[in-house]
Specification:
By secondary structure, this protein is α/β, with parallel strands linked by helices. The chain folds into three domains: 73 residues, Arc Repressor Mutant, subunit A; 110 residues, D-Maltodextrin-Binding Protein, domain 2 (3-Layer(aba) Sandwich); 94 residues, D-Maltodextrin-Binding Protein, domain 2 (3-Layer(aba) Sandwich), CATH 3.40.190. It is 44% helix and 22% strand. The strands form three sheets. A six-stranded mixed β-sheet has the order 8-12-7-11-9-10. The protein has a five-stranded mixed β-sheet with strand order 4-3-5-13-6, sandwiched between helices. A two-stranded antiparallel ribbon has the order 1-2.
């Protein structure tokens, strides 16, 4: 069964007739007809009903669904082979968690695309546990995220350790301080990431040890949305320095004593990870960039 015949069939379905499909594929109409004839002979079923309008048979509908999945996998394989041959083309599927996805990865990708303009990038933004599952199921090639709770036979390599800071509205009394204490959070509304987030769990354990439950909670699943809610005066946010590393109008970042959490950001890869040349180039750039950043933070 030829890939070109399968692609011909899906193109006919897409455009609704043989003529438009022939134009789209740059084939003659007799070639298109021959492809479908051979395909139906191999399948052993009629796939298309010809008439005033073109319709798929029941076998055709089933074949179309499977054919699309097959063509996507074939295209991915084709891109991978190009990558292996030249190291300049291909598709790299990256998983990444916030705030890395919004604040740090764009500059790295821009640098990489400038050097390798023919490489296609697919980004999937999710939490570490979701990315670990996606990697295990071969939906992404590698991930940049925190350490997942379940490894799923993946390997995690730390890139750097972040620390926790406090983001407050500029109008908040705490904004007059340079360094806040955990005790300052008593009776405050604290913005948290979801209850199953490892960072949130560790931070909240510390808060309860220091001030009990004398605080209010506002849970927001998107860590990057915290600054907007702080700006609106809805609470204060305890999250990573990276997440609050860019000035945001109407807010102020404070160091905070007493929070010992040090969230790790790293590379998550499969145990037997076979990467093409393009992926190898990108991974090297990611490690170099984060290594420099970590060194600069230590020196600072």
């Amino acid at each position: 069964m030829e890939i070109r015949a399968i692609r011909t069939f899906t193109t006919i379905v897409k455009y609704g007739n043989f003529l438009k499909a022939a134009e789209a594929l740059n084939y003659s109409q007799p070639t298109i007809t021959l492809h479908i004839k051979h395909l139906e002979e191999e399948v052993g079923e009629k796939l298309l009903e010809r008439g005033k309008s073109l319709k798929m048979t029941e076998a055709g509908r089933l074949f179309y669904e499977r054919a699309n999945a097959l063509l996507r996998e074939y295209d991915r394989l084709d891109k991978t082979l190009q990558d292996l041959e030249g190291g300049i083309a291909g598709l790299i599927r990256i998983g990444v968690s916030e705030p890395t996805a919004s604040l740090e990865l764009p500059a790295i990708i821009a640098d990489f695309i400038e050097k390798f303009p023919k490489v296609e990038i697919s980004l999937h933004v999710a939490d570490a546990n979701t990315l670990s599952t996606m990697l295990y199921q071969d939906e992404i090639d590698f991930a940049i995220c925190g350490a997942p709770e379940v490894s799923m036979e993946n390997v995690f390599k730390p890139l750097y350790y972040d620390d926790i800071v406090l983001l407050v509205p500029e109008s908040h009394p705490l904004s007059a301080k340079k360094i806040a204490e955990v005790e300052d959070l008593e009776e405050e509304t604290i913005l948290f990431t979801p209850h199953n987030c490892p960072i949130r769990i560790k931070i909240e354990q510390t808060i309860v040890e220091k001030i009990g439950t004398n605080y209010k909670k506002l849970e927001i699943s998107s860590s990057m949305a915290h600054k907007h809610y702080v700006q609106a005066g809805l609470g204060v946010s305890l999250f990573t320095r990276t997440a609050h590393s860019f000035p945001f109008p109407g807010t102020k970042v404070l160091d905070v004593n007493g929070i010992e959490a040090a969230p790790v950001i790293g590379l998550l890869k499969r145990t037997n990870n076979l990467t093409g040349k393009a992926s190898t180039h990108l991974l090297a750039l990611i490690e170099e960039t984060f290594s420099k950043k970590h060194t600069l933070q230590e020196n600072y």
